[in-house]
Write a structure and sequence with these properties.
This protein has 323 residues and is of the alpha/beta class. The protein has two domains: 185 residues, D-Maltodextrin-Binding Protein, domain 2 (3-Layer(aba) Sandwich); 99 residues, Periplasmic binding protein-like II (D-Maltodextrin-Binding Protein, domain 2), CATH 3.40.190. Helix content is 45%, strand content 19%. The protein is built from eleven helices and ten strands. Strands 1, 2, 3, 4, 5, 6, 7, 8, 9 and 10 form a ten-stranded mixed beta sheet that branches. The radius of gyration is 22 Å and the shape is globular. The N terminus is likely disordered.
Length: 323
């Protein structure tokens, strides 16, 4: 009996050691990182910076796979339905995960149930920019003009339901003003018409806006983050400008198919936290207007649930029609 017991204990110890070694060895082959947008966008840039750091740290390639379409739904579905073995992950903007469920009548997946949070990777605020011909120097002056001229100020967005649209609708509701939405097919065309003076204002990503502001072609009134951005330290927050209810942060996060082993998620989380502290990672991302930061997997899950509920209320209140 003692021999049998000792044999079983030895076998259990061996299996435990093997399991530990497998977990520590991960990854042992290339990892596919699905980015559900076209190359060159904000989330794509953030992902490629991190992927390079992950590859160098683990000795395995993290290969970016761009799968654009349906505001990120196509790539997110592909990731969620992949084998949960740690070798397919999703790098996605919060708009896809937290706003899309309110914008689409039929979602291909449940963003909360079918994807497991790993870590946030960084983010940036939107910035409220206006054409210089509009005689306003701050947000309160803009709100005053909008109240005096209801429905006469036009704001651009990248598309219906885009981050630029949602941010502007949040501002409209908080400020209790009437401004007219003009949707475009992307940030580029929207910015072009704003620069030309065909529309008066826009909430846009910080990185492409800063050069235009520095050149005097646009005026920045406020950022939508809780604190000022290092990329535009002279621009006040919406709270400082008198509208504390207008908080909208664009962030990029890493998720995995639901069922991915916990030790693999922990390893990915640790590698992401380590990468976020690297000097070259920080310099590259800050240069793009993105502040690198990470979270625990649990905290990221909480943020996703909180934002999903919050934006559902905004979409409903703004009467944005689901697609």
């Amino acid at each position: 009996m003692h021999l049998i017991r000792d044999t079983l204990l030895a076998a259990a110890l061996l299996l435990s050691c093997v399991a530990m070694s497998w977990g520590q060895a991960y990854p042992v082959r290339p990892v596919r990182v699905i980015v559900p947008y076209a190359p060159g966008g904000g989330a794509d840039v953030v992902t490629r910076v991190y992927s390079k750091a992950w590859s160098e740290s683990t000795g395995q390639q993290f290969i970016v796979d761009n799968r654009a379409g349906a505001n990120g739904n196509i790539g997110a579905e592909l990731a969620a339905k992949s084998k949960p073995d740690g070798y397919t992950v999703l790098s996605v903007a919060n708009t896809t995960v937290t706003i899309n469920p309110s914008l689409y009548r039929q979602m291909p997946i449940d963003m909360i149930r079918d994807l497991a949070p790993v870590s946030m990777m960084g983010g940036q605020p939107s910035v409220l920019i206006v054409h210089p011909a509009l005689p306003v120097k701050n947000v309160k002056e803009l709100a005053a003009i909008a109240r005096a001229r209801p429905g006469q100020l036009d704001y651009a967005s990248a598309s219906t339901g885009s981050s630029s649209h949602i941010a502007a609708e949040l501002f409209r509701m908080v400020a209790k003003i009437d401004i007219t939405h003009v949707p475009y097919k992307g940030n580029g065309p929207a910015m072009a018409d704003l620069l030309a003076g065909h529309v008066q204002l826009m909430f846009n990503n910080l990185a492409p806006s800063v050069p235009q502001v520095k050149a005097g072609r646009l005026r920045a009134l406020a950022v939508t983050s809780e604190k000022r951005s290092a990329a535009a330290p002279d621009v006040p927050t919406m709270a400082e400008a008198g509208f504390p209810g207008v908080v909208f942060n664009l962030w990029v996060g890493l998720l995995a198919p639901f069922g991915t082993p916990a030790d693999m998620i922990a390893r990915l989380n640790a590698e992401t936290a380590k990468a976020a502290q690297l000097r070259d990672v920080r310099e590259r991302l800050l240069g793009e207007g993105t502040e690198p930061y990470t979270t625990s997997a649990a905290r990221m899950g909480d943020i996703i649930r909180e934002e999903t509920a919050r934006w559902a209320k905004v979409v409903k209140a703004a009467n944005i029609t689901p697609q």
